[in-house]
Amino acid sequence: MQGVTLKSRAAAFACAAGALVFILSLVLGYTPGQEDDLLQIGRSLIIAILCGTMSWASACRTIATTATAIDAATERLLSAAHGDLQSPVPGDIRAELPDLSVAMESLFSQVRTNLDHVQALALFDQVTGLANRISFCRQVERHLAERDDSEGMAALFFIDLDGFKNVNDTLGHAAGDQLLARVAGRLREVVMAQVSGGTGDAVIGRLAGDEFTMFFPTLPGTSAAARIARAIQFALGERFDLGSQHVDLGASIGIACYPDHGDTLATLLRAADIAMYHAKHEGRGRAEMYTAELALEAADRAELERDLLLALQRDEFLLEFQPQIESSSGRAVAAEALVRWAHPDRDDIIMPGAFVPVAEESGTIVALGDWVMSRVCETAARWASNGIDQRIAINISTRELAQADFFLRLRHSIAKHQAPPAMLELEITESLAMDMEPRVLEQLRALRQDGVRVAIDDFGTGYSNLSRLKELPVDRVKIDRSLVRDIATSAEARTICSAVVGLIQGLGMEVVVEGIENQAQMDVLRVIGCTLFQGYHLARPTGEQDYLDRYAGQAIAAERRNA
Questions:
Q1: Are strands 476-479 and 453-459 parallel, antiparallel or unpaired?
Q2: What mean pLDDT is reported for the chain?
Q3: Which of 135, 229, 274, 354 would be a feasible disulfide site paired with 131, CB 3.0-4.6 Å?
Q4: Which uninterrupted H or E stretch holds 219?
């Protein structure tokens, strides 16, 4: 009912009580004929007024006490709204409004719990319990701001796990999270060991994925930083036991020192990241200290990445072709398409070894692969129309196959240029072939049914599972040059190569030997049973016109020149 206050309710209660007493007094105390009627009524009225007044006073006192408790509750809620969740609920509220007191205490407790949870989410990594990126950066920036020049050097360690992706791919993300938590535990043990040895405490954080950071605010010198890096490598190099699974990891570590390598967190992180990248590039499982030379290399790499993107826009790439020769007839049965970069500011053609690794790391290899794919399909269609019956092989990178729409783009390029599928061959490295997902295998089988050939490249440089090899949709295997380099002079090399060739041929696949450098190698390999060869001894990669002049017949080459 709107407009009804405690005071109005008290007044109504007092009036009702007075009226009730008045009626009772008249009923019980009125005696007709003994006294004047007005006197008896007046006496009853006086009693009623006294009762009503007393009721009013009692109600007002109760209202005042309740109002005081309500005022205290209002003030307490206002203080809670301004952040005070620790002060107890006042006693007046507990005495006068016990239910409200219990509700307020429960509310404050729940809000405190929620705030603690939000703070934990904001400052700590949920998988490892370490400081997350935001918290780590805040703590390090505070240390740097509070430093005294007399404290000596500080060191930032950038730690990247080697082989963690394989754990996620093979054992699943739950096992990966468990492994990250174990890594965090071992990093804490490293810090505790350093503290017990006299080195100050450190800030440990997980930036993202399998990247960890560690900051020591005070160290006696660079030798101490190198010692800590070795301790980290030793701790993470020990085998991890994940239930029934045993995982061997390692770490690539970059080290940046304050103030020599930077006086802000941003510059230290960049320097440590550059050093870590160099450690990983040099073979992983290493620790590298930042140097000016590494900074120059990083700058050159960044410039090369920018130039790669511009080169794609300016169409600066070109293809050269290297034949695969059938030894019995001397005929070229296939040509491997190899990309080259005609950089406008350099006199020499840039070979793929100088830019393909950078393209792989930066992701530019996907766009570059699309360019190669389109150009090869266009070339294959033109060769087929001119009666040239030779396949063109394309190298496919891990990054390209990881694209969900890679096969869709490949089929689109084939259809766009009307290239005969039988004129195309996809070359996939041995390590990639062993780890292909079922989705990729199904797509490769579908391409083979359409006529596209599939080859394993660089066989002998990875680790092959024989049962896996016989299940792959593969037509040919290209033996890497490392297996045949010493075949003319080493009996052991001949034994190994003979066994590999016999295994591949026994599985019904063709063998192509790469890296042929002299006639002696070819003679031995022919005795073993090889008939298809590729290498500088036979022919170097060359432009399309030179290739056709030599391996497609003079008449066809002349027709192409006149086209």
A1: parallel
A2: 83
A3: 135
A4: strand 211-219
Please write the tens of the pLDDT for every residue from 88-124.
877 777 776 777 777 877 877 777 766 656 555 567 7
Tell me the three state secondary structure of residue 198.
coil
In terms of phi and psi (left: phi > 0; alpha: psi -120 to 50; beta: otherwise), the region of 285 is left
DSSP line for 238-267: SPEEETTEEE--EEEEEEEEETTT-SSHHH
In this structure, what DSSP letter does residue 124 have? B
How many angstroms separate the Cα of 159 from the Cα of each of 207, 252, 343, 428?
Answer: 10, 6, 36, 31
- The Cα–Cα gap between 313 and 375 comes to 15
**Could you write out the DSSP letters of every residue in 365-385?**
HHHHHHHHHHHHHHHHHHHHH
At position 442, the amino acid (one-letter code) is: E
* C-alpha separations of 109 from 106, 113, 119, 252, 295 in Å: 5, 6, 15, 45, 53
Q: What does the block give as tokens for 232? A: 């980290």
CA dihedral 514, 517, 519, 522 (to 10 degrees): -20
Burial (CB count within 10 angstroms: exposed 0-12, middle 13-18, buried 19+), residue 372: buried
Residues with Cβ within 8 Å of residue 340, at least 6 apart in sequence? 317, 318, 319, 320, 349, 350, 351, 352
Beta strands 250-258 and 153-162 are antiparallel
pTM of full prediction above 0.85: no
Q: Kind of pairing, strands 153-162 and 211-219?
A: antiparallel
Q: Determine the 3-state secondary structure of 289 from DSSP.
A: strand
Of 226, 287, 290, 288, residue with least CA distance to 262: 290
Per-residue pLDDT tens over the stretch 2-55: 455 555 665 666 666 656 665 666 555 555 555 555 665 666 666 656 665 666
Hey, what are 180's tokens? 């990250």
Tell me the two tokens of residue 522: 């070819």
CB 478 within 8 A of CB 449: no
- The phi, psi pair for 240, rounded to 5°, reads -100, 130
DSSP string of 36-75, one letter each residue? -HHHHHHHHHHHHHHHHHHHHHHHHHHHHHHHHHHHHHHH
Torsion sign (Cα): 407, 413, 416, 421: negative
Q: Which of 447, 451, 543, 535 shows the shortest CA–CA distance to 487?
A: 535
- Is residue 385 scored above 50 in pLDDT? yes
Close Cβ partners of 361 (under 8 Å, ≥ 6 residues apart): none
